[in-house]
Design brief:
Elements lengths: L3 E5 L3 H12 L3 E6 L3 H7 L4 E3 L2 H5 L7 E4 L6 H10 L4 E4 L10 H8 L4 E4 L6 H11 L6 E11 L12 H4 L3 H4 L1 H12 L3 E8 L10 E8 L2 E10 L7 E6 L2 E5 L5 E5 L3 E4 L7 H11 L7 H19 L2
Parallel strand pairs: 1-2, 1-4, 2-3, 4-5, 5-6, 7-10
Antiparallel strand pairs: 7-11, 8-9, 9-10, 11-12, 12-13, 13-14
The protein binds nicotinamide-adenine-dinucleotide.
């Protein structure tokens, strides 16, 4: 059945999600942006509104919603959509550090359907690696290294990303939420987690570099996150086991090598492929992306920021 979808936030991510909705044969019925021109540009067949409240008063009803606004707005908008009984895919982070999730947790325990947009877990290489680890192909996992780094020329991201009150912080919350989430999903609970972080780019008081170290079961691991003024090197996720290893590059290409065989996958269009897969996962109610799954990641990020500020 084709679904009618409400999209809140018609910026870069709103457009990616709208494309995924259309690719699945669903329809963007309502487009919301504080900037009405942007709302109108999201989908020529959608009704455009300047606020979520306005859209919820629309005569057009919807089956699902997507939240793709600046991060601090996610929590309030989630609670509003939960109260309206609309299943919602929310961009990461589902809340920013310091925001109290109590209202959202109450809504979820009351049955609200919320799916968090952890797009990197929908990369084909990540799906393959999850399967290989689950099947024991890599043996006992001993090492885990995730280097998620991006060249960030001036103006590459809207200014709100570097305003802690809107984004919640720098690279740790914006990209680290993906890295910590996928480490937890692949390895289980992270223990003895420590972090260092600092600004790198001129004019930033939020962190552009963060390094997180942890233990998880039999593995020791590290996550390095970077926003740089140059093209970073040696990036990607590497999982090392006693019987094999897997690597996923930042372009989505991947390699899994065991004593028996080597399998590989090509680079993907990371702006479309994972978002189409993610929308299908949301539609079919795939497990692993709920607030219960992601709230511990946010609590962990919150504690890392607290420890950093405590010195
Ligand atoms: N999953 C991923 O791979 C990924 C990648 C990039 C960004 N993100 C997340 O997506 C979210 C959006 O990021 P973006 O880069 O698209 O930002 P953006 O600034 O390009 O777009 C945000 C849009 O929201 C609109 N907006 C602001 N306040 C609003 C309100 N109250 N109601 C409705 N619209 C409002 C803005 O006008 C803007 O058009 C962020 O939370 C970010 O962390 C996720």
């Amino acid at each position: 059945m084709s679904r009618r979808v409400l999209v809140v936030g018609a910026g870069v991510m709103g457009h990616r999600h709208a494309a995924a909705v259309r690719a699945a044969g669903d329809r963007v019925a309502l487009a919301v942006d504080a900037d009405l021109t942007r709302a109108r540009a999201l989908d020529e067949n959608a009704l455009a509104y300047g606020s979520l409240a306005g859209a919820l008063a629309s005569p057009e009803t919807v089956d699902a919603a997507i939240i793709a606004t600046p991060s601090f707005q996610h929590l309030d908008q989630l609670v509003t959509l939960a109260a309206a009984g609309i299943p919602t895919l929310v961009e990461k982070p589902h809340r920013i550090p310091g925001q109290d999730p109590a209202g959202l947790l109450t809504a979820v325990s009351g049955g609200a359907e919320v799916f968090v947009g952890m797009s990197t877990r929908h990369w084909p290489g990540y799906v393959e690696l999850t399967r290989a680890i689950g099947a024991g192909e890599l043996g006992e996992i001993v090492g885990y290294t995730d280097r998620m780094a991006f060249a960030l020329p001036e103006g590459a991201l809207p200014a709100w990303y570097f305003d802690r009150s809107v984004s919640g912080g720098g690279v740790l919350v914006t990209n680290g939420v993906h890295a910590l989430d996928r480490a937890r999903a692949l390895l289980g609970p992270l223990e003895k987690v420590t972090a260092t972080m600092r600004p790198v780019l001129p004019g930033h008081d939020t962190e552009d570099h963060a390094r997180v170290r942890f233990r998880a079961g039999t593995a020791t691991g590290s996550i390095e996150l970077l926003w740089a003024a140059y093209e970073p090197v040696a990036t990607g996720l590497t999982v090392t086991g006693t019987r094999g290893a897997g690597h996923i590059a930042m372009d989505g290409s991947w390699r899994i090598s065991t004593r028996d065989a080597t399998r590989t996958g090509d680079a993907i269009d990371i702006d479309t492929v994972p978002f189409a897969a993610q929308w299908q996962a949301f539609r079919t109610g795939a497990a692993g992306f709920s607030i219960d799954d992601l709230e511990p990641t946010l609590t962990l990020i919150e504690s890392l920021y607290r420890e950093a500020s405590d010195g």
